[in-house]
Write a structure and sequence with these properties.
Layout: E1 8-9, H1 31-44, H2 49-54, H3 58-73, H4 80-93, H5 97-109, H6 125-128, H7 131-139, H8 146-154, H9 162-184, E2 197-198, H10 209-213, H11 219-224, H12 234-257, H13 262-277, H14 291-294, E3 317-318, H15 324-335, H16 339-352, H17 367-380, E4 383-384, H18 391-396, H19 399-410, H20 417-422, H21 429-459
Parallel strand pairs: 3-4
Antiparallel strand pairs: 1-2
Helix pairs in contact: 1-3, 3-16, 4-5, 4-9, 7-9, 8-21, 9-19, 9-21, 15-16, 15-21, 16-21, 17-21
Subcellular location: Cytoplasm
Organism: Mesitornis unicolor (brown roatelo)
Pfam families: PA26
């Protein structure tokens, strides 16, 4: 009546992939979750949708919030506005407008210069110099060399210190992998963000044409649409779970009986690495970067490419020669105190997290499955564990699951609800969110390993 336009949310709940009634409802959470919500609200000034989905796994969320708070707000080598701007640069690489919008607000809140937001070319040269590293870390980290590090540390008045560079690298990898989580879980924009609301009144069929063109569909329409859930008989998907458990049992028995030779293990790694190139992420649909997000980075055409394509041979990264535990952790902790510890804890929680359940089954040891997922991601990045039999990956991860993993990790902006629905169809949403936590942390660690190895080589 007063002519005030009232926004209403476009989505239903914090995720487009998970029905709202199946997420944790604010107000019905337990004491631990409530404390986490309070921490998140205090740190961010809002209870964001990432938190509302991550809270399926409170132990992980606690570690995640602690790490993110430390990176963005506690004492460290970089000024606060630089930190948020680097977050914008990293999220923009994957066209993640959800994270870009959050950090644009934070950047302005801590006194950042609004002119920088008109495009990377308006930011200080020092930040522009970080563009190349951002690009390679996000899409092809195996190409990073000590020369790239040298360029950043040696460029006279715009040079980075080692401590600043470590802080920047951790921020870049944090936001690349958080973009993977955002797309992998179908996180909806908050009502006050771009794409999170409409001013149009609810129409007869509960959505208007502008919603459809923007990819926001009503609940009824998603269930009816051919690209929504894939209808599958419950017996068929129960069989999937049974078959997976049977394979785990057989693999365990084979392990106990005989161990493959080192040569055979190396061959299986190379085979899996080659095969991972033929897993096309997300039906390979192109997602055009919107001008709004793409202005925060250079070279918009640069994206993920498999490392062995076009006759390029990238040497295998052997964890025996450079690992997070023996090398990366101490380097980070030395140059940016406490961060190595926080990251290490977060990696461990994601990797070891288990409730000993699989779909409807209780008391299941899922360690074999978790390790297969983690090592498959590292394998896609050319990272090899000498003591792992890569033959297990093909046994445990079927093709639709591999497509989902590769898309979320390498080209997250192409993740669709159809892909989320098509893997592990009988599993709980909390289990699928758990998969995304593994993808996020394995990806982050892989990026860090390449960057930290290059920094170590530069230093020595």
């Amino acid at each position: 009546e007063l002519g005030v336009r009232i926004p209403r949310p476009l989505g239903h709940g914090p995720s487009r992939f998970i029905p709202e009634k199946e997420t944790v409802q604010v107000g019905s959470e337990d004491a631990m979750m409530h404390a986490l919500f309070a921490d998140s609200f205090a740190a961010l000034g809002r209870l964001d949708n990432v938190t509302l989905v991550m809270v399926f796994h409170p132990q992980y969320l606690e570690s995640f919030l602690k790490t993110q708070h430390y990176l963005l707000q506690m004492d460290g080598p970089l000024p606060l506005h630089y930190r948020h701007y680097i977050g914008i640069m990293a999220a923009a690489r994957h066209q993640c407008s959800y994270l870009v919008n959050l950090h644009v607000n934070d950047f302005l809140h801590v006194g950042g210069d609004p002119k920088w937001l008109n495009g990377l070319e308006n930011a200080p040269q020092k930040l522009q110099n970080l563009g190349e590293l951002n690009k390679m870390l996000a899409h092809r980290p195996w190409l990073i060399t000590k020369e790239h590090i040298e360029q950043l540390l040696k460029t006279e008045e715009n040079s980075w210190s080692l401590a600043e560079l470590i802080h920047a690298v951790v921020l870049l990898t944090h936001y690349h992998s958080l973009a993977s989580f955002t797309f992998g879980c179908g996180i909806s924009p908050e009502i006050d963000c771009e794409g999170g609301h409409t001013f149009r009144p609810p129409s007869v069929s509960n959505y208007c044409i502008c919603d459809i063109t923007n990819g926001y569909h009503s609940v009824e329409e998603i269930h009816a649409s051919p690209t929504g859930s894939i209808p599958v008989s419950s017996t068929e998907s129960v069989c999937e779970v049974e078959a997976l458990m049977e394979k785990m049992k057989q693999l365990q028995e084979c392990r106990d009986e005989e161990e493959a030779s080192q040569e055979e293990m190396a061959t299986r790694f190379e085979r899996e690495k080659r095969e991972s190139m033929f897993v096309c992420s997300s039906e390979d649909e192109e997602s055009a970067a919107t001008r709004d997000v793409s202005r925060h980075f250079e070279d918009t055409s640069y994206g993920y490419k498999d490392f062995s394509r076009h006759g390029m041979h990238v040497p295998t990264f052997r964890v025996q020669d450079y690992s997070w535990e023996d090398h990366g952790y101490s380097l980070v902790n030395r140059l940016y105190p406490d961060v190595g510890q926080l990251l290490d804890e977060k990696f461990h929680i994601a990797y070891n997290l288990t409730y000993n359940t699989m779909a409807m089954h209780k008391d299941v040891d899922t360690s074999m499955l978790r390790r297969a997922i983690w090592n498959y991601i590292h394998c896609m990045f050319g990272i090899r564990y000498d003591d792992y039999d890569y033959g297990e990956i093909n046994q445990l991860l079927d093709r639709s699951f591999k497509v989902y993993i590769k898309t979320v990790v390498c080209t997250p902006e192409k993740t669709t609800k159809r892909m989320y629905d098509s893997f592990w169809r009988q599993f709980e949403h909390s289990e699928k969110v758990h998969v995304n936590l593994l993808l996020v942390e394995a990806r982050m660690q892989a990026e860090l390993l390449y960057a930290l190895r290059a920094i170590t080589r530069y230093m020595t």
